[in-house]
Amino acid sequence: MNVAARGKPVLKAGVKRLLGRAGFDIVRSTRVQGGVDDFIPFEPTMRAARAAGLSVGDYIDEVMNGTPGATRSTIDALREHGVYAAAPRTVLEIGPGSGRYLERTLQECSPDRYEIYETAAPWAAYLVDTFGVVAQPAEGCSLAPTADARVDLVQAHKVFNTVTFLQSARYFFEMARVTRPGGRIVFDVLTETCLDPAAVGVWATKGGAGHDSYPAAMPRRTCVDLFATLGCALEAAFQAPMGVASTEVLVFRKTA
Ligand SMILES: C[S@@+](CC[C@H](N)C(=O)[O-])C[C@H]1O[C@@H](n2cnc3c(N)ncnc32)[C@H](O)[C@@H]1O
User: Fold this and answer.
1) Are 167 and 140 in contact (CB under 8 A)?
2) I need a labelling partner for 44 at 20 to 30 A (CA). Which of 4, 83, 88, 178 fits?
């Protein structure tokens, strides 16, 4: 049975069961140095989304982030760039958090296997229970449990602007390693295309509260040149809303 087919029937039961659990108010990435120390707390977020009559993904977009439709517009753009056209059978996502991109990815394709690497244990458990994904041990910047050239679509959304340069760079090598030839790698980074003086001013005056490591910038050229050496060509790039400004989504195709 594919992941999407399994996920939908268990959605309600999984949410209900997990809402009944106690002790998940603070989510800490204890084994990870230098990244976000905590993420959106699981239980209050689920409660608030339910009270607002929204899915957790829409609640985060609309209420918490003030960017309604942000997740959907990124998925729409990825569809337009043909990311789902090859019907990926294996998907891997780093840092899915609440699963707002994961859920919409499963509406676009029906993979047999969907692996996640998520350091926030309660959210990882929720995604396993709700969508039938496979949670791999998240050690900080390694995808070691995943074999070489095994994955059709590797993605990370709003992760590499919250962790350190070295964590992102180490993940980049791993993402290229696990992607099969012809597969896609999708992630966003805060590149110089998102950082004109006006945007820097907005971030400086209104952004980034709460996390010292957010937003972390990453040169676009560094990504493009590095992935080129790893056999991955830049196929598409577009802006997506993030926080008080924007981030750049990059789509690579592994050619060799
Ligand atoms: C800003 S949140 C984004 C969550 C989700 N992708 C989204 O856009 O809603 C960053 C996510 O990355 C996770 N994370 C942080 N460091 C990580 C690491 N080293 N490896 C895997 N996940 C990590 C956090 O727990 C969190 O779920």
Assistant:
1) yes
2) 4
pLDDT above 90 (res 7)? no
- Cα of 117 vs centre of ligand 1, distance in Å, is 9
Residues with Cβ within 6 A of ligand 1?
Answer: 29, 32, 35-36, 39, 94-98, 100-101, 117-120, 123, 138, 140-141, 157-159, 162-163, 167
Which pLDDT band holds residue 65 (cuts at 50, 70, 90)?
A: confident
Q: Provide the CATH number for the domain formed by 3-254 in this structure.
A: 3.40.50.150
Tell me how far the alpha carbon of residue 91 lies from the centroid of ligand 1, in angstroms.
16
Q: What is the pLDDT of residues 19-35, one digit of tens each?
A: 333 222 223 443 443 33
**Amino acid in the structure at residue 120:** A
Q: Give the C-alpha separation, 92 to 114, whole Å.
A: 6
CB 3 within 8 A of CB 112: yes
* Among protein residues, the one whose CA lies closest to atom 24 of ligand 1: 95
Closest CA to 33 of 111, 114, 119: 119
What is the rounded CA–CA span in Å between residue 92 and residue 134?
9
